[in-house]
Amino acid sequence: MVEGTETIVPEGTATAPRVSFSEATEQVIGNLTSGEGDMVSVVDYATQHLAPQLFLAAIGLGIVFIGYLAASYLSRVISKPICRRVDETFGIFVGKIVFYSIMFGVVGAVLSKMGAPLGGLAAMLTAAGFAIGLAFQGTLSNFASGVLMLVFRPFKVGDVVNAAGVMGKVNEIDLFTTTLDTPDNRRIIVPNSSISGGTIENISHHAHRRVEVPVGVAYAADIDMTRAALTAAVMTFESEFIPGEKRGYAVIMSNLGASSVDWLVRMWVPSKDFFRLKESLTVEIKRQLDAHEISIPFPQLDVHLRRDEGDEEVLFQRPRVRPMRRNAAEPSFPHAS
Question: Of 130, 147, 131, which Cα lies nearest the Cα of 193?
Fold first, then answer.
């Protein structure tokens, strides 16, 4: 067209109104069901309405796929520094938030460009979310507990914890559940609400732990000799326990029990060696006590009888109960009459 020219529309002509895809679809289906449609109308519908919509749908899927790749890349880029410098669990949580936020925005933009009624869809999702919230209160409670644990971080992946009556190493913290691996190599999945609603014991949080072995010895044992034996037992691990202020070791006489003198043998060790050194210390204490001939009493009951004059026969004569002899003529098993 040459610049400055005008297109003249003849009088009496009008532009045909644009028919939407849904209206055209309804019209073709109505014509086919009533028998008024023909192949020409179907071909026109396919070329003028269906093909452009399929092309737009393909473009939309491509955009969603590209958005998925971008969301995955950005979530990894953002979460890696957090995992490395702050905490692995919190980094994974932030990565998931970034991923789902980007995907939600991309899908919403594609649906908006394709003409989807987002206002009505939002209202429908709100009503569905209210109904789902009432139906899945326990699941939403697990979700809320998971978010709180990821934000406040009472423990992280790799910690050994005792929570909800289960002790194990944390393998994964999800939004709904927490996965623990027990010392005997069992995997237990615990709902987050059960963990956050109870007491959480983080066993491996600190680098040092105190081993404590209670020991009871006989009252006849010499106190200084007992202390020397227990000190010799704990000094066997001098190269392995943690020295320093409020660390090191201690041998304490804690109580005078009902049948024994109670001692406590303590030493501070690295958390990773706690169970091994506790077992070794217990064995060494037994060896040192045996070497010093110090006995470990066991609970026993001594009964003292007093003999009163005139009641000897009543107190010390026990009636003898003899088993009844069975008559040889009687059958071994009774018969029902």
Answer: 147
The rounded distance, in Å, linking the Cα atoms of 16 and 141 is 57
What is the arrangement of strands in the sheet containing 249-256, beginning at the earlier edge strand?
A: 208-217, 261-270, 249-256
Contact 226, 174 (CB under 8 A): no
CATH of the domain at 213: 3.30.70.100
Sign of the alpha-carbon dihedral angle for 180, 182, 185, 187: negative
The sign of the CA dihedral 64, 68, 73, 77 is positive
Domain that holds residue 73: 21-116
Residue 288 CB neighbours (<10 A): 20
Question: Which class for 282: exposed (0-12), middle (13-18), buried (19 or more C-beta within 10 A)?
Answer: middle
pLDDT tens for 98-133 read 898 898 888 888 877 776 666 666 777 777 777 776
pLDDT tens across 58-103, in order? Answer: 888 888 899 999 999 999 888 888 888 877 777 887 888 889 889 8
pTM of the entire predicted model:
0.57
CA trace torsion 105, 83, 90, 68 (10° rounding):
20
Structure tokens at 93: 């949580």
Query: Based on the domain organization, do 32 and 70 belong to the same domain?
Result: yes
| Nearest to 281, CA basis, from 205, 213, 214 | 213
In-domain check, residue 1: no
In this structure, are 194 and 233 located in the same domain? no
- Cα angle value 208/211/216 (rounded, 5°): 165
- Report how many domains make up the chain: 3
Q: Is residue 45 part of a domain?
A: yes
In this structure, are 222 and 197 located in the same domain? no
Q: Do 177 and 96 share a domain, yes or no?
A: no
